[in-house]
Amino acid sequence: MSLANTLAAPLAGSLAAGSQVDGGYMTNARMFAMAAALVGLAGAAIGGLALARAARRVGNSGKNGAIVALVSGLIAVVGGVVNLAVADGGPGTGNGVVGGALAIGLGLIAIVLGAVARARSRKTGGRGAHHSMSSAS
Fold it and tell me: Which single residue of 28, 36, 49, 85 could bond 103 by disulfide (Cβ 3.0 to 4.6 Å)?
């Protein structure tokens, strides 16, 4: 028996039995959940920046950032829901359940921040540098 087979046998046995997977082992479901959570985190960060920009009323009033936050939040929520829908075990089974739940939470935060930033940019009229230059002529 080779060294690779010796090291892989306990892992294959635990996967076949449906028991828990070591936290350091990266399964495809965990990677998908992590990607969805990172998209949600990026959307939440962009939504926060857009909200701050809309409050300052500079530039494009955060309209573009709000749209990016809304879209990335929606992608994260859908990815998290799909991941949880296909998971056949709980946390620690390698199905990315924790990452999927995190993706849903971060995606919802991104959606809320993006919606508030979009509403504030509409309230201020969405007047950025481009609009003020065209009205000056």
Answer: 36
Q: How far apart are the first and last CA of the chain?
A: 82
5 to 2, 13, 94, 109: CA distances (angstroms): 5, 12, 21, 45
Question: In the chain, which ranges are continuous DSSP H helix?
Answer: 3-17, 28-56, 63-86, 97-123, 129-136
Note whether 100 and 33 are within 8 A (CB): yes
Burial 65-84 (b: 16+ CB within 10 A, else e): bbbbbbbbbbbbbebbbebb
Work out the burial of residue 6: count CB atoms within 10 Å of its CB; fewer than 13 is exposed, 13-18 middle, 19 or more buried.
Answer: exposed
Residue 99, token pair as written in the block: 């990452």
pLDDT, one tens digit for every residue, the chain (137 residues): 454 444 444 444 444 444 566 666 777 888 888 999 999 999 999 888 888 876 665 455 567 788 888 999 999 999 999 998 888 877 777 778 888 999 999 999 999 998 888 887 776 554 444 444 444 44
